[in-house]
Amino acid sequence: MSDDARALLSRLEAHDRGLWPANNVSPTRLGWLEAPRRMEAEAADLLEWARTVEQRTVVLLGMGGSSLGPAVLEATRDAGVATSQIHGDAPRRLVVCDTTHPVTVSSLDFSDAFVLVSSKSGTTLEPNALLAHAWSRLPDPSRYAAVTDHGTPLAKLAAERGFARCFENPPDIGGRYSVLSYFGMVPAALIGYDVAELCSRALSSDLVEAAALGMTMGEEARAGRDKLTVELPDAYAAFGLWVEQLIAESTGKQGTGCVPVPTTSPEAGADRHVVQLHPRGPADLAQQFYRWEVAVALCGHVLGIDPFDEPDVAESKRNTNDVLGHLPLPELESREPSEVLAWLGETFRSGDYVSLQAYLPFGHDAQLETLRRAVRDHLGGAPVTAGYGPRFLHSTGQLHKGGPDSLVAVQIVSRTYEPEVPVPGKPYDFATLIAAQSVGDHRSLLAHGRRVTRVALDDLAEIA
Q1: What distance in Å separates the CA atoms of residue 24 and residue 225, rounded to the nearest whole number?
Q2: Does domain 2-22+205-303 have CATH number 3.40.50.10490?
Q3: What CATH architecture does domain 34-200 belong to?
Q4: Are 448 and 395 a contacting pair, CB within 8 Å?
Q5: Rounded CA gap, 443 and 109, in Å?
Q6: Across the strands, what pairs with 58?
Q7: Of 30, 372, 397, 400, most Cβ neighbours within 10 A?
Q8: What is the pTM of this model?
Q9: pLDDT tens, position by position, 164-199
Q10: What is the distance between the alpha carbons of residues 219 and 257, in angstroms, rounded to a whole number?
Q11: CA–CA separation, 270 vs 248, rounded Å?
């Protein structure tokens, strides 16, 4: 396989669009291959700029690939000694807000915050709504920076308002492949990472091995082992967020794909392909970022799909806008929490996977993982994933709609939404927005014939 992997890697590095089906979007999506070298050259400038920021907290407003890489870097920063701190022994804290839940939005503290707005297109609903909220609380352009593509509405707004900096990313880098570009390295610099070291580690990756991993992933999926179990140490569990969205959004289309199941405990099964990761420190994640980008791109080759498009992601966005355009919100049928496990037992079939989609405020990670394991065990070791909405609408949602017809989804929504947090300039508040997003995605799932139930609750323990 090594010779085949080396040949595929050479074609990838040569930007050979023939690796994927006709009319693929790779000519405008392969800039990530050069991103680590470019960021390595700009590392000193990033560090120098980061030192000028006086605030001790960075609030990142983004969604999907623009936010999950930085979230991983923050969550794993203290797992080992691999950073050069910007201000002595007190590096900045990064708060990633990639949700529209009013509880989380209202909890953002801007008193000592520097706000980083990340959006490739500059038109994405969630970052724009979050920016409007932040600006209503902190209308000081010297405490804002933006990361976006050249010439976007966000870039223009940053110039008009006089943001401290606007980093314009190369347009040929998609969101989920952007962690080693400005989208990941600007927040990395702000929270104390040695960007040059991260990029150097990425460039030292064994890319032939990465190509072989991608080939194996694709071949295993075609052989029926399409549930990709990624086993991680507890200290690096957050990496599962990033790798899950990369795999799901890249491969889940045309009725095929790899279903990523991040876990910190061994999970096996007849339809599982298990990959174990053993990072030795936070900087090792840079190697893993680059390794998995290469692997997933070439997995797409084996599966015969375009790993760089996202044909079904926009559907939930359109449905959300339609719901918001026809307020009040429609009433959807809900199941009692105590009925969920029985419904899963009746609905789940061999070869399926369960997605627990929690439209809840952040801070329920431990309870969500407890529920994930409870459902897994209730179904005899079934593949179960769990995540916060609306985060997954821009990433793993592609798999749920466009991937294999093996999804069993549980939408978990709040019984009540407090406090009331208006979206400046809009005729609705954040509670209405996140509710509309759940309704819009519910419509998308049903339109694709997916099996989905909905439950409203105050406490995740009500299900178990």
Answers
A1: 26
A2: yes
A3: 3-Layer(aba) Sandwich (3.40)
A4: no
A5: 34
A6: 94, 114
A7: 397
A8: 0.96
A9: 999 999 999 999 999 999 999 999 999 999 999 999
A10: 11
A11: 20
